[in-house]
Amino acid sequence: MLRKGLLGALAFVITLVFGMQAMAAGTIKIGVQAPITGKFASEGQSIDKSVRLIAKQWNAKGGVLGKKIEVITCDDEGKAVKAAICARQLVDKGVLAVIGSYTSTCAEAAEAIYYKAGVLQTSDGTSDTLVKHGYWTFFRNSSPNSAEAAFTAEFFIKKQHYKRIATISDYSTFSTDLTNTVIKDIKKLGGNIVYSGKITSGAQNFTPILTKIKSFNPDVIYFGGYYTDGGLIKAQMKQLGMKADFVGGDSNDNPEFIKLAGKAAVGTYLVNVPLPEMLPYDAAKNFLKAYKEAYHETPASIWTLFNVDGLRAILYSIQQTKSTNTKKIADYMHNKLKNYPGITGPLEWAANGERVGSAYMAYRIGDDLKYHIVYKH
Amino acid sequence: MDIFLQQLINGLTIGSIYALVALGYTMVYGVLKLINFAHGDLVAFSAYIGLVVMMQLSGAISSSAVIILLTFIVTMIIIAAAGVTLERIAYRPLRSAPRLSAVVSALGASLVIENGIMLIWGPRPKIFPADIVPSINWNIGGVYIGLLQLLVLVISFTLMFILYFFVNRTKLGTAMRASAIDQDAARLMGINVNKIIMTTFIIGSALGAVGGLFIGMYYRGIYFNMGWIYGLNAFVAAIIGGIGNIPGAMLGGLLLGVFNALISGYLSSSWALALTYVLLIVIMIFRPTGILGERVAEKV
Asked: Contact, B215 vs B222, CB < 8 A?
């Protein structure tokens, strides 16, 4: 115990000394607040590695505003208490902006501290509460929970022009909430819901409800549950000779879906944020290549890339404003930054820190049983 | 009309699977007066064994008809052996103990099998290969029926008729009925009751294995804990038909499937499961011993 404490103190002193030296040299400090250990460790480490990679890339080109970028990482372990401690430490070390955290809980616990200190924060947290305070320092770099439903409704009405829509959910909170929001958003766009029903997850035999839905003659069935049921629903639709399309929510996006549905999977539509390797943008391809070269692995998930986009936007804005005044940078990001080419799609922010547009995409499973993008923002 | 017929076919398909599994409950109850709670998990186990056997065979043999036939035979043999082992280990030592002890032992065996499956194959669902049976679908006047569905119905009904014939027309079947009525008297008549009980477990488990394979092949996804829900439904089916009564288990299974389909088709799919059970409770109120009555054998 004692030894550990001593080591910790030593490490702290070393960071302090090096930190001061760095300040003397005139660097721009970027904080990373992420779960480096704990159950989200792979996500947290991936975020940290990515931020360091971006910093290295910029530094190789002369840094930003002629100063080198210095990355300071604090491990919040995915816990709210630790997140608040990290926030204070990072603020004390004089960071200009913080990337993180991975979880909404930790991002929210640190949000007010960064706001009071005037430190920019960008997080991939999807919880709708993150932007409710409207802190000028906060920038969400992913899409909130409610964005999936809004995107799905848009896909149904504006792209597919469905006239008769049926929905199915299971009894879980996640599925019920998602499906209800989809229904609400579809109605808002003037869509016509002809049937909405529920299934017991794991029941396997869905032919009774599907036969019933068939009698309503819908042109699409939306399913807001999990792939274990979704794959079977799709297979049983085919078996019942149903011609309606099938659109699955994000939890249907799993390789097992195709295994369960077999050949019946062809023609399935799925709505989700894309896998890193599916991103169609050049910035994405370049970044993934660089990441692979540097670390001999791929980023943990799309969430890493959202955070990288947050960082890239901040660095770009610093350069554009030629300033390290966070208020100025935030103003630029809120008002002037439009359609900045991100890894996860065009970047733009609303005044409350919500990312404009969503990274959600609709895929169609083709005859090759692979995903093909059919609709995106 | 076509919707009604479609729901009927939907219900009969799942119902015949329930019926196959229900036979295992009802036969064991008939002879031992014991609810074999591990039977549902044996069914889940059979689906996993069937998948392993099928994957092994599909590497060696190209004809899918031969693969399926062999899978059924091998799986039925393995599960029958598992059923006999279960009887030996979990039930025979407790045969003269109070009946509750045997029930606890059955529940314990159920947990052992369920968690055993999880430890061997993991908690994630396993998936049967697609198109082992060609996915042929017929459209008869707006009513759709698949080849696999047809196979499930035909094989289930054939097996049930063979079983009915076996129990009522053969010497071994007569011995089985005799043991069900009075084990001591049967013993005095020169019947080896232990052998009869073993036979009961062999037949019940083998039929359950067919049910498990149908679940795997028709619904494709199998879960380590699926034995619980299929077992529960089949157990209810056995009670509805009259526990211990073989035609009763068949009728109960089919009724359960058809009720569920019709309720979800005409009343509410969200409430289908709940309403199905309400209907079943109503049946129990008017026919407490099940539709066909408990143990017809006693009336012989």
From this structure: yes
The backbone torsions φ and ψ at residue A376, rounded to the nearest 5 degrees and listed phi first, read -150, 170
E strand or H helix that includes residue B202: helix B193-214
**Residue B132 with chain A: CB contacts under 8 Å:** none
Q: State how far the Cα of A101 lies from the Cα of A116, in Å rounded to an integer.
A: 17
B269 closest CB neighbour out of A198, A204, A259 = A198
Domain spans of chain B? 2-125+141-299
**Beta carbons of A66 and A59 less than 8 angstroms apart:** no
User: How many cross-chain Cβ pairs, A to B, lie less than 8 Å apart?
Assistant: 91
CB B241 within 8 A of CB B25: no
Note whether A82 and A75 are within 8 A (CB). yes
Whole-angstrom distance, CA of residue A251 vs CA of residue B241:
40
Under CATH, to which class is B2-125+141-299 assigned? mainly alpha
Q: What is the 3-state secondary structure (H, E, C) of A24-65?
A: HHCCEEEEEEECCCCCCHHHHHHHHHHHHHHHHHHHHCCCEC
Q: CA-to-CA distance for A349 and A335, rounded, in angstroms?
A: 8
- Helical (H) or strand (E) element with B66: helix B64-86
Cβ pair B139:A241 closer than 8 A: yes
A261 to chain B nearest CA, in Å?
8
CA separation for the pair B180, B196 (Å, rounded) = 10
- Residues B198 and B175 sit within 8 Å (Cβ to Cβ): no
pLDDT in tens, chain B (300 residues): 788 999 999 999 999 999 999 999 999 998 888 899 999 999 999 999 999 999 999 888 888 889 999 999 999 999 999 999 999 999 999 988 888 899 999 999 999 999 999 999 988 788 898 778 887 888 888 889 989 999 999 999 999 999 999 999 999 999 999 998 888 999 999 999 999 999 999 999 999 999 999 999 998 889 888 998 899 999 999 998 988 888 999 999 999 999 889 988 888 777 877 888 888 888 889 888 888 876 544 444
Q: Determine the length of chain B.
A: 300
Token pair in block for residue A350: 């609303």
Question: Phi first, then psi: what are they for A264, rounded to 5°?
Answer: -65, -15
Contact B11/A208, CB-based, under 8 Å? yes
Do residues A153 and A360 make contact, with C-beta atoms less than 8 angstroms apart?
Answer: no
Number of H helices, E strands in chain B: 11, 4
Residues contacting B195, CB < 8 A, separation 6+:
none
Give the C-alpha distances (Å, rounded to integers) separating B177 from B32, B162, B165, B172, B174: 12, 16, 13, 9, 5
Put simply, whether A217 touches B (Cβ < 8 Å) is: no
Q: What are the structural domains, with CATH classification, of chain A? A: 2-143+280-347 (3.40.50.2300), 146-272 (3.40.50.2300)
Cβ contacts of A256 on chain B, cutoff 8 Å: 125, 127, 221
